[in-house]
Input
Amino acid sequence: MSLTGVNWGSPKYTTMVNNGDPDNRLDIVIIGDGYTTAEQTMFNEDARVLVDAFAQIEPIRTYIKHFNFHRINVISKESGAIDPHTDPPQKPDTALKTFFSPIAERRLIGPDPLVMLVATESGAPWDKILCIVNAPRRGGATLASMTVGYASRNSNDYPRIMIHEAGHIIARVMDEYTGELPDIDFAKDWSLPSFLPWPNIDTNLERPKWWRWLTPGVDMPTPDVQANNDVVGAFQGAAYTNLGVYRPQRRCLMRRHNHDFCVVCSERWIRAVYKRSRIADGFLPEFRLPQPPIRWDAERPLIFKAQVVRGKGIKTVWRTKKLEQIRWRRRQATSDYQDFMVTLEANRFGGQKIPTAWAIECILEDGSDRIRTPSIRSLSRQKQRWYVITM
Ligand SMILES: [Zn+2]
Output
């Protein structure tokens, strides 16, 4: 007997893209609501289309090795989603009870705790959940749990709507569009020095949160004209109002579904990647204190290896020192990750080898120019140290 009482497909979950150990990956599960037994094949195809769309959009495309994707099959008795806006109102019997909000016509949501419980019961490893709804009309949204994104399959840009919702729950960025609410001048009416915690919107024109990204000499506010498509400045209009709230770039997927993520939202995706996964799965040979030092006869080379998740754009520093010395010797600093082979000399005294203790260190860091915020750069940093005794 399952706690949630849902009807499972078989198997309950399927790993669609396996890029590595869930302990070191951002695991996204895709679940469907309003899909009947006969519609499971359609759901599987919808999930496939979504995963393919994810893999196309930057910066996810570049960081795709940090993601796993799984699909959960649950069966609804009836197709659709609960919709109070139709005449008569629709009340299909679906597994997850997703519904259009009574107060906002396009807001398609569901009971997050139930969806999270179902995901857990399926046995799939998950960090975030995307719920595709087989609703007859367009819609999407997220709720305050910042864990589940919902989108209707029935619009031609549905994968992009879902990736927009994923922007909320994974990258934790705010809507940059306007027009759903009456325009309120937040800066004037509320005198907020800095609008809410969202990194991609601000009321502060003097020094917006994304000041590191500003195009030198850019006009503030920045004119909303095509010539400024690649400029980073402060464009008025974001977070549902056209007054007093600014966004970093003219175009962003958090504003329109046919655009890519702006530089600020992209950087927050990378932050999400490193919040959940490290730059390397591990290092070889395995070594962790209090393990005794590796004993080595110094006859053949000893190879150290960083098992990086993504082989490109990793700044790597390898360095060594004799433990009685103070300074590290930087043997190799590379722009891309490489294995490191040491040929440490054995100390000799009167023809006799004398044991010498060495420390060897590897420091990895994401060198991408998509990162400008130091705290995000340091989030990517990973360090390993080995102790070796040459005999
Ligand atoms: Zn953006």
Summary: The first strand starts at residue 7 and ends at 17. The longest helix spans residues 40-54. The two ends are 62 Å apart (CA to CA).
